[in-house]
Write a structure and sequence with these properties.
Length: about 60
């Protein structure tokens, strides 16, 4: 089984653009530079937020 422990952000699931991770009031928000979609994962650790994002992108 392949390990997926790196902190690389997968590209935007909508347009394939670059993703920026920002913290707003301690809530992690993923913003796309291209289509400006925003996804908020709330109060997670940095690692958990990235894992949640990558899992979401992977699952479509
Ligand atoms: Zn996008």
């Amino acid at each position: 089984m392949k390990s997926e422990t790196d902190n690389t952000l997968k590209p935007c699931p909508f347009c394939g653009g670059d993703i920026e991770l920002t913290a707003v009031d301690y809530e992690w928000t993923f913003c796309c530079f291209e289509c400006e979609s925003r996804t908020n994962f709330g109060l997670l650790t940095y690692e958990d937020a990235i894992a949640a994002w990558n899992k979401r992108v992977k699952n479509g």
